[in-house]
Amino acid sequence: MSEFENKLKAELIPSLAYNLIKLTNRSYRLQVEGWGTVENALAAGDSIVFSSWHGKSWVPAYFLRDLGIYALTSLSRDGSYMTEILHKLGWETIRGSSSRGASRSLLALYRKLQQGASTALTPDGPTGPIYEVKPGIIFLQEKAESMLVPIGVDARWKKNFASWDRYLLPLPFSKTALVFGEPFSFEAGLEMERKQDILKAKMKEVNSRAAEIVKK
């Protein structure tokens, strides 16, 4: 692929994706639960780590726009596209990956959290297995003394793609639910495996609630 084609893709893909996210989300009949408590915590300057499954980011990415929340994006070309899309949505980003620059990017994110910033992470990302909580999100949240907020998403009319994360795309004009759990932190002395189980259970709870809402 020529340099011109690469530059053209770099300009077109983020713009097209951003407009698609914006237009579809504006069309949804969205019902939101639990946001008031989270909004108050953010207004008070609390540092929050939002937890959303990798395959359910379409709606939260738009809803949490323009709040200056930090996201980790990969060092790949796709990561560059995602960085541009998130910037258009008013997010902040830190570049890194599980193989290159991971320690530096996590340290940078940790410092942002200590300064009162918030972040959104995918506990089962970037490669799965699906709906399994990895230790990273918990380790970061505890070190930064932030609060965790689980996010649940579902839609009545939707497309689940054949990717490892079963990526969920609510179809235009669909009744869609976005559920925020209560901000929480873990009790002292728990083993990591127990903490993972707790977060997984809370993720199941908010996603089950979202599924209930869209069926009504």
Describe this structure in words.
This protein is of the alpha/beta class and 216 residues long. 46% of the residues lie in helices and 19% in strands. The protein is built from seven helices and nine strands, in the order αβαβαβαβαβαββββα. The chain has a five-stranded mixed beta sheet with strand order 1-9-6-2-5. Strand 3, helix 4 (77-88) and strand 4 form a beta-alpha-beta unit. Helix 1 crosses helix 4 (77-88). The longest helix has 25 residues, at 3-27. It is globular. The N and C termini lie far apart (49 Å). The mean pLDDT is 93.
What is the structural class? alpha/beta
Radius of gyration: 17 Å
- Helicity range: 40-55%
Overall mean pLDDT score?
A: 93
Low-pLDDT residue intervals, each spanning 5 or more residues: none
Quick structural summary:
The chain has 216 residues and is of the alpha/beta class. The protein has helices at residues 3-27, 35-43, 58-63, 77-88, 102-114, 135-144, 192-215, and strands spanning 29-33, 48-51, 70-73, 92-95, 119-121, 147-155, 158-160, 168-170, 175-180.
